[in-house]
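Retry 2 of 3 after timeout on previous attempt. Resubmitting structure tokens to design endpoint.
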């Protein structure tokens, strides 16, 4: 089943990937509620006007896709958009649900090592580390946050990458090849909130 989605991204470096993600949705693009290449430029509008526009876009969605790019933390909006996505907002008689949130890691300099370097362990396992300095606190505190973790490797305490974190990270190539799988995974976690210790507040 298609989900209504919103994409949070830093315009100056991730707009081309945003366009690829929108294109990858195919027929489900009609459920997309965020900006596109033909959206009006809001940069000259007031902060309150932009926030209200963003609230209107996010309110009716159920999944927020965050493009993880090298300079995303310079954005004035991404962490706020994630915080709003994790709220239940009441409008009239209706209350929004908590969005599923998914991080799509942008390829940079030919790969993903800038954020997720791999290393080989002595036991033969390959591990992927995450350079949290590139991530907002509201992202990395919602990773590996299952209330009762289930380990796919009990010896090395490795959690499932798709169920062990409320905000999972997927490389852009994998996402573009099968967007519905990852969107549905994010949505399914939003329907099981008690499984996670959610961190909902951006750092001021």
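Retry 2 succeeded. Sequence:
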């Amino acid at each position: 089943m298609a989900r209504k989605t919103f994409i949070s991204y830093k315009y100056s470096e991730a707009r081309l990937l945003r366009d690829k993600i929108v294109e990858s949705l195919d027929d489900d693009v009609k459920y997309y509620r965020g900006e596109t290449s033909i959206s009006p430029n809001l940069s000259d509008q007031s902060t309150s006007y932009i926030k209200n526009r963003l609230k209107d876009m996010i309110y009716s969605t159920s999944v927020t896709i965050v493009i993880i790019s090298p300079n995303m933390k310079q954005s004035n909006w991404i962490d706020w958009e994630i915080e709003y996505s994790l709220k239940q907002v009441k409008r009239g008689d209706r209350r929004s649900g908590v969005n599923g949130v998914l991080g799509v890691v942008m390829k940079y300099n030919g790969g993903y090592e800038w954020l997720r370097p791999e290393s080989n362990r002595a036991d033969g396992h390959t591990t992927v580390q995450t350079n949290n300095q590139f991530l907002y606190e509201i992202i990395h505190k919602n990773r590996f946050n299952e209330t009762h973790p289930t380990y796919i490797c009990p010896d090395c305490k490795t959690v499932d990458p798709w169920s062990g974190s409320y905000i999972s990270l997927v490389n852009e190539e994998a996402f573009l090849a099968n967007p519905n799988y990852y969107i549905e995974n994010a949505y399914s976690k939003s329907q099981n909130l008690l499984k996670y210790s959610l961190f909902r507040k951006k750092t001021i």
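Attempt log closed. The first helix runs from residue 11 to 24.
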